[in-house]
Design goal:
Blueprint (H helix, E strand, L loop, with lengths): L4 H8 L2 H10 L4 H5 L11 H15 L5 E5 L7 E5 L2 E5 L12 E2 L5 E5 L2 E5 L2 E5 L2 E13 L6 E10 L14 H6 L1 H5 L16 H23 L16 H4 L2 E4 L6 H12 L4 H11 E4 L10 E3 H7 L1 H21 L4 H7 L2 E2 L5 E3 H7 L3 E4 L2 H11 L1 H6 L4 E3 L6 H7 L2 H11 L20 H26 L8 E6 L8 H17 L8 E6 L7 H18 L8 E6 L4 H7 L5 E4 L11 H7 L3 E4 L5 H8 L5 E2 L4 H10 L3 H7 L1 H12 L11 H9 L5 H19 L2 H13 L6 H13 L29
Helix pairs in contact: 1-17, 4-31, 9-10, 9-12, 11-12, 19-30, 20-21, 20-27, 20-29, 26-27
């Protein structure tokens, strides 16, 4: 979620008033804003996407709730010591959180372990351990529409009789200390992005948020009118018409068996009725195609922790496979491929399969990704129910990612086309009329330059390095992962360095290369990549032959509040994942909206950005998905490129020989070994095209006017990538609710008129 203060002032239309009031108190609002901690309660794009969606849902007047866990410790703070990433705990609640309100009156029990008893009346889950879920509510204000939605985060609390109720031999002190065991559930965020780690505590977290949330939803459904907790409705027929639940990846997949457990075991609905209601309630968004990221929970673990849920999953699977067997008799391989249970070695539950079977809609997050989902990853399921599969291209909120972070550009745009674009970003197309307007071109360039100067000052303050603000700011910020190919960027840096040294007199377009992002603490290769970037920076930044032509900076502790600083100052946005690996990306959209040009592969939303702006207004290079597939078929041979490209060979040899690590020549052996022998993401195969494309970038940067015209065409084409558009599509195609752009009356206005304006339909 990042910081809340400035976003709240903007959405309430109070920013100028607050700035002025605080100024009159002799304080500086910007200084105050810097004191607030980021709420870093997710990992990479998936968590930030949820935050953008909350902003858009409130702005569109949808009755929507965002549910999650109130982690005591969010994503770790990253320190760089001697070039290595070191993690520190993110104690973000140390000084309290003024935006949250604890709601102990809505505390709910969540059960774990125990056993299942079957009888004539049905199944009973008994002898469980209970943990209490305490909700904390954070307001989510819409943009200038007097709507405030709720983000409800659950915190784990031990019941007061914890470890004292059972025949305890009177070790009261130990019993109280053991409350920590229950409360550890919401202690810390697992810091993996695009990687599955099958730990018991993680499964506990996933079930904890799901069980508390479903009870909360059903309580709200049963309450006849606002504020009432009396049970009035007992018929669940209308449940899917009143409630839509969107599963953000498979992490909350246990919601499917949990809702079935509530319907069948507690509410005593027949299975078929319960299953129909469940399927119509849930929809599933897939966020990755990397096999190592797919959740596959061991059956033994689920049986121990959630025995009744395992039985329900088996029953779902049995009926699912019976259905498939009836359609495809004797096709045992199809049954194996489509089963929710993977046999062979340890039996595992494929959570993506559970989500597909238990949902009425499945979507990817960019056109190319949704195609890959349909034709490769889940092809058997798409063949069975093609109408279930959709695309919903991701978006970003223009409130935080333009108004808040780039007020200079936002104001410049408003002067030309009015202020309405903030709620309807498609209006940015009106900027096409000004592509040839010399004054506008100069003003856009001026705003960018001011942002660069400001960021350069920030870098000098934080990193004690002198930055040339007229150099090209070439920025690569995102989680560190092999598929995102920060290594390819690193090879380009080394190549530029070698070219400067080879011919110091030759014209070189000065660059400041900024790379930032966190590596999962257990991801050895990602941590080596960070060390390599810092080792290269050390050499490049201290070589007098290079001077101010090339500077390399590793941006420490990349997070939302730092993104808000670096993105508006960026000239070149690096989006260089191997085609077919980045589901969508959203940083790419933020850079586009803030006047950077993109160098990128035809992957994720880059494809649609090129479609909107025209491919000639992006720097597109490298293999397409088809080329990658063909390379796999023929076998990727890294040596082929190494032997054929002298500059690549030189760069790789320098890393290998210890040129960048003279005290430890073999430091990067693992990286080199990976690049030659098991590089799944084919860095060498795209190196030549990347370097050539970068030469075109430098050439264009010399012509400020031509560069800025492309920038304007990009901004004018960025309208599609508002999360408002994305949410309207979810609302219409999946949730079946109508967004409303009505401004509801403020609390101090008369309310009679508001009665008939209530949009009917589902709560998401």
């Amino acid at each position: 979620m990042g910081r809340t203060l400035q976003n709240t002032m903007i959405n309430l239309g109070l920013q100028n008033a607050c700035d002025e009031a605080v100024y009159q108190l002799g304080l500086d609002m910007e200084e105050l804003e810097e004191i607030e901690e980021d709420a870093g309660l997710g990992n990479g794009g998936l968590g930030r996407l949820a935050a953008c969606f909350l902003d858009s849902m409130a702005t569109l007047g949808l009755a929507a709730y965002g549910y999650g866990i109130r982690y005591e410790y969010g994503i770790f703070n990253q320190k760089i010591r001697d070039g290595w990433q070191v993690e520190e705990a993110d104690d973000w609640l140390r000084h309290g959180n003024p935006w949250e309100k604890a709601r102990p009156e809505y505390m709910l029990p969540v059960h774990f372990y125990g056993r299942v008893e079957h009888s004539a009346t049905g199944a009973k889950w008994i002898d469980t351990q209970v943990v209490l879920a305490l909700p904390y509510d954070t307001p989510v204000p819409g943009y200038m529409n007097n709507t405030v939605n709720t983000m409800r985060l659950w915190s784990a609390r031990a019941p007061n009789d914890f470890n004292l109720r059972d025949f305890n031999v009177g070790d009261y002190i130990q019993a109280v200390l053991d409350r920590n065991l229950a409360e550890n559930i919401s202690r810390v965020l697992y810091p993996n992005d695009n990687f599955f780690e099958g730990k018991e505590l993680r499964l506990k977290q996933e079930y904890f948020v799901v069980a508390a949330t479903l009870q909360d939803i059903i309580r709200r459904f049963k309450a006849s009118k606002f504020g009432s907790t009396d049970t009035v409705r007992t018929v669940f027929d209308s449940f899917p018409d009143q409630v839509a639940i969107q599963l953000n990846d498979t992490h909350p997949a246990m919601a499917i068996p949990e809702l079935m457990r509530i319907f069948v075991d507690i509410e005593k609905l027949p299975w078929d009725k319960a299953w129909d209601l469940t399927k119509r309630t849930f929809a599933y968004t897939n966020h990755t195609v990397l096999p190592e990221a797919l959740e596959r929970w061991p059956v033994d673990l689920v049986e121990k922790l959630l025995p009744r849920h395992l039985q329900i999953i088996y029953e779902i699977n049995q009926r699912h496979l019976d259905h498939i067997a009836s359609l495809f008799p004797n096709d045992v391989d199809r049954l194996r491929r489509m089963s929710l249970i993977e046999e062979g070695g340890t039996k595992r539950i494929n959570m993506a399969h559970l989500c597909i079977v238990g949902s009425h809609a499945v979507n990817g997050v960019a056109k190319i990704h949704s195609e890959i989902v349909k034709t490769q990853v889940f092809e058997d399921f798409a063949e069975l129910e093609p109408e279930k599969f959709q695309n919903k291209t991701n978006g970003i909120t223009p409130r935080r990612w333009l108004l808040l972070c780039n007020p200079g550009l936002a104001e410049l745009i408003a002067e030309k086309i009015g202020e309405d674009y903030v709620r309807d970003l498609s209006q940015l197309t009106k900027l096409h009329e000004f592509v040839e307007d010399d004054l506008f071109i100069r003003e856009v360039a001026k705003v960018k330059q001011e942002n660069k100067v400001k960021f350069a000052l920030y870098l000098e303050k934080e990193y004690k390095v002198k930055i040339n603000p007229s150099s090209m700011f070439d920025v690569h910020v995102k989680r560190i992962h092999e598929y995102k190919r920060q290594l390819m960027n690193c090879l380009h840096i080394i190549t530029m360095y070698n070219r400067i040294r080879r011919d110091p007199a030759k014209l070189f377009v000065p660059r400041t290369v900024i790379i930032g992002g966190k590596a999962a603490p257990g991801y050895h290769m990602a941590k080596m990549i960070i060390k390599l970037i810092n080792a290269v920076a050390q050499v490049v930044n201290n070589d007098p032959m290079v001077g101010s032509k090339l500077k390399v900076i590793f941006l420490e502790n990349y997070r939302v509040s730092l993104a808000e600083k670096v993105i508006p100052a960026t000239d070149l946005s690096e989006q260089i994942s191997t085609a077919g690996t980045e589901a969508s990306g959203t940083g790419n959209m933020k850079f586009m909206l803030n006047g950077a040009l993109t160098i990128g592969t035809m992957d994720g939303a880059n494809v649609e950005m090129a479609e909107e702006a025209g491919e000639e207004n992006l720097f597109i290079f490298g293999m397409r998905v088809e080329d990658v597939t063909e390379l796999d078929r023929n076998g990727y041979n890294a040596h082929f490129y190494y032997d054929r490209l002298p500059e690549l060979k030189q760069a790789v040899d320098q890393i290998k020989s210890g040129f960048f690590s003279p005290k430890e020549p073999n430091l990067f052996n693992d990286v080199i070994n990976m690049l030659f022998h098991h590089d799944r993401f084919k860095v060498f195969a795209d190196y030549e095209a990347y370097v050539k494309c970068q030469e075109k970038v430098s050439e264009l940067y010399l012509n400020s006017r031509a560069w800025t015209k492309k920038v304007i065409r990009n901004i004018a084409a960025a309208g599609k990538f508002s999360s408002d558009r994305t949410i309207k599509e979810y609302a219409r195609d999946i949730w079946h609710v109508e967004p409303s752009d009505l401004k509801i009356p403020a609390p101090n206005e008369p309310r009679e008129a508001a009665q008939d304006k209530t949009p009917n339909g589902t709560a998401a």
